[in-house]
Amino acid sequence: MLNDTIANAERELYLTLLTLAQEKPSAYEWLKQLPTWLGDIKDKANYAHAPAYQASVARLPNLTVNSVDLNSDTLTIEANLSESQRKQTTALLKQLMPWRKGPFQIGGQIGDDESGIKIDTEWHSDWKWQRVAPHLGTLKGRRVLDVGGGSGYHGWRMAGAGADTVIIIDPSCLFYHQFMAIRHFVGTADAHETGRYRTHYIPVPLEALPASSDQGSQLFDTVFSMGVLYHRQSPFEHLQQLKGQLVKGGELVLETLVIEGDTNTVLVPHDRYAQMNNVYFLPSVAALIGWLEKAGFTDVRCVDVAVTSTEEQRKTEWMTYHSLADFLDSNDATKTVEGYPAPMRATIIAKK
Ligand SMILES: Nc1ncnc2c1ncn2[C@@H]1O[C@H](C[S@+](CC[C@H]([NH3+])C(=O)[O-])CC(=O)[O-])[C@@H](O)[C@H]1O
Question: Structure pTM?
Answer without folding.
Answer: 0.98
